Fold this protein.
Amino acid sequence: MSLVGQMYKDQGMKGFYRGVDVNIMRAIVLNATKMGVYDIAKGKVVESTGWTRKDPRTAFFSSFLAGFFMTCTVAPFDRLRTNLMNQPTDKKIYNGLSDCFVKTVRQEGVLSLWRGFIPIWARFAPMATLQLLTIESLYATFGFKSI
């Protein structure tokens, strides 16, 4: 029997949606952190350097900082999502996000929630920088106010 068939047999349709709640929460936290930190960082960069908010250097440094803080806030959700989604198809190890959080912290410690921080940051920093520089460029091209 295929993996998909086995999963359906063991868990029904719900099995295909394991971890979806954590993915939604992760997306909310990721985007709120990215945009919030980016906006605040732009103000701080402008204050400390004298550059304008529209200066590409301001956008670059602010988006790089946003990538760092995205990693700080999203890494625990990534860890819990991975644990939830990697459960065997024939048994449940965790009964939802809260149970997964408690068991992960008890078994591996609080710092385990940030396991893989450097690789995650290595992915988020360039991604946030490219996204935010692109959106700033598009805003300028089409005459919208900068973030």
Notes: The chain has a mean pLDDT of 91. The two ends are 52 Å apart (CA to CA).
